[in-house]
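Quick one, tokens below:
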């Protein structure tokens, strides 16, 4: 029997990679999208005809119930969220509505429509926040540092609670930062690789960044969506940390990205206080031992490979967008 999966947030970075994986696995994939005056579906345009789209919004309970009723999924992956940390200080209430209460709305819809649906919640290493121990694993205490992190703690604990209260197969992947050429342009990895491509093309000479000392455990999004799928195939519902086990500073990210294009980041990167956060997460490093042992999950793409892949993709994109020869300055 063909299995059906409903993905919220299908137009986002992870949604597009997960949709590809599930289509490859033979699933009927249904993506939930919200109405917009522009399409906003660039990341899934290449999957046109291979998946079904239903309209719905995490703010609207009736639309979630209807999305589940019409698509009859076996698995639901809740990837939709307001996911950019700085925006969560500007729009804390909206972030809470999407990223925290949205989880309640979706789990309530599952309880109402079909409690045998398996549910994946996109939890985040931002829940660890100001860490006292390193590396972080499933037993590390939470100390979130942004309204986004706080909202994710709510969604995480609610998922645990619906598992314990109602016996729903509801699990959380506590994913550390994961990136790709499809990453939003405002996140630091993509901002840097896009910046390198622009500098190389002669469009600008500088890149303004915030805290270069921040450390993150960065992996490749394609590897992380595999972990999400494996978690819903597990015998028992269990939460997992998904991470590479290596951490790097934003400065190292710059070194690798600029060097890959034959540039020295020190000639171009400017530290700008405008990009500092009201409260920072200084250091993250994940321990994915449980996922390795139970799920056989291992990341395939290293930090260097990831950054180089993103620089190459941004340079190729600009080559296509600019008049012939214009993107090859220097
Ligand atoms: P992303 O690229 O920002 O995508 C977010 C998705 O959520 C988009 O499809 C967006 O739709 C959708 N969305 C936002 N608000 C919605 C609403 N009210 N109703 C329905 N859909 C809504 O995020 P991502 O990087 O793929 O991350 C996927 C999930 O994992 C998010 O929950 C994120 O918080 C979490 N996470 C990400 C990372 C990471 O490093 N990437 C790590 C840990 C956890 P539109 O296209 O219409 O805006
Ligand atoms: O920042 C520093 C910044 O915005 C990483 C989301 O997917 O991962 C992501 O959250 C670090 C921070 O990601 C700039 O201060 C320096 O320390 O790429 P980011 P994030 O905040 O870690 C987690 C796991 C999620 O769940 C989130 O959804 O980089 N940094 N200079 C900068 N960051 C940005 N964005 N821009 C800068 O100019």
């Amino acid at each position: 029997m063909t299995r059906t999966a409903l993905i919220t947030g299908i137009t986002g970075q992870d949604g597009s990679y997960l949709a590809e994986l599930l289509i490859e696995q033979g699933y009927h994939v249904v993506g939930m999208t919200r109405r917009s005056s522009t399409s906003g579906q660039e990341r899934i345009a290449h999957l046109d005809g291979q998946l079904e789209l239903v309209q719905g919004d995490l703010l609207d309970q009736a639309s979630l119930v209807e999305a589940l009723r019409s698509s009859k999924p076996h698995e639901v992956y809740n990837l939709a969220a307001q996911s950019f940390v700085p925006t969560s200080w500007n729009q804390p209430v909206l972030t809470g509505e999407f990223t925290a209460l949205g989880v309640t709305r979706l789990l309530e819809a599952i309880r109402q429509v079909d409690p045998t649906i398996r549910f994946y919640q996109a939890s985040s290493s931002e829940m660890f926040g100001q860490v006292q121990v390193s590396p972080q694993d499933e037993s590390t205490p939470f100390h979130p540092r942004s309204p986004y992190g706080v909202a994710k703690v709510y969604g995480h604990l609610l998922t645990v609670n619906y598992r314990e209260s109602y016996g729903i197969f509801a699990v959380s992947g506590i994913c550390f930062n994961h990136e790709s050429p499809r990453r939003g342009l405002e996140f630091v990895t993509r901002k840097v690789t896009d910046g390198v491509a622009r500098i190389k093309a002669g469009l600008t000479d500088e890149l303004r960044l915030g805290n270069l000392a921040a450390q993150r455990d960065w992996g490749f999004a394609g590897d992380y969506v595999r972990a999400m799928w494996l978690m819903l195939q597990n015998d028992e519902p269990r939460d997992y940390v998904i991470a590479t086990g290596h951490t790097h500073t934003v400065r190292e990210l710059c070194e690798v990205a600029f060097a890959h294009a034959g540039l020295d980041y020190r000639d171009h990167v400017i530290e700008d206080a405008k990009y500092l956060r009201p409260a920072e997460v200084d250091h993250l490093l994940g321990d994915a031992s449980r996922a390795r042992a139970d799920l056989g999950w291992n990341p395939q793409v290293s930090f260097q490979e990831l950054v180089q892949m993103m620089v190459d993709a941004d340079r190729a994109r600009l080559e296509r967008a600019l008049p012939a020869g214009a993107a090859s300055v220097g």
